[in-house]
Amino acid sequence: SPEQLANKGFSIKAMTDNQSSSHTTYRFGDFALDTLKSELSYQGALIPLEKQVLLLLRYLVENRDRLVTREDLVATVWKGRVISDSAISSRIKTLRRALHDDGNTLN
């Protein structure tokens, strides 16, 4: 989670494009999340991720200052559709892998 990133020495910096208030690039460690392009990169190299995983990351980053509930995720990322816990867990696992997070240490 973003809180875990902060606890491991990461800070999240939002950089907004002056021409578009909806275009923000969040930088944390060697990662960059570009909201306009819906892309995550690590040290400049693109990390291929499904749109839903990118939406999940964006939602977590943009709400890093509060507890995000399962209901929040379903309402926002899945647009209120009925979704199983295993499907949510699968997307979170994919995201953690992309962020090099094994649950114990972050590289």
Helix-strand layout with pairing:
Elements: H1 2-7, E1 12-16, E2 24-28, E3 31-34, E4 39-42, E5 45-47, H2 51-62, H3 70-76, H4 85-98
Antiparallel strand pairs: 1-2, 2-3, 3-4, 4-5
Helix pairs in contact: 2-4
Fraction of residues in β-strands: 15-25%
- Rg calculated over all Cα atoms: 14 Å
How many angstroms separate the termini? 14 Å
Structural class: alpha+beta
Core attributes:
single chain, 107 residues, alpha+beta, 4 helices, 20% strand
Describe the 3D structure.
The model has no long low-confidence stretch (mean pLDDT 85). Helix 2 crosses helix 4 (85-98). The chain is built from 4 helices and 5 strands. It is α+β, with helices and mostly antiparallel strands. It starts with a helix and ends in a 9-residue tail after the last helix.
Structure in a nutshell:
It is built from four helices and five strands. It is an alpha+beta fold. It has a five-stranded antiparallel sheet.
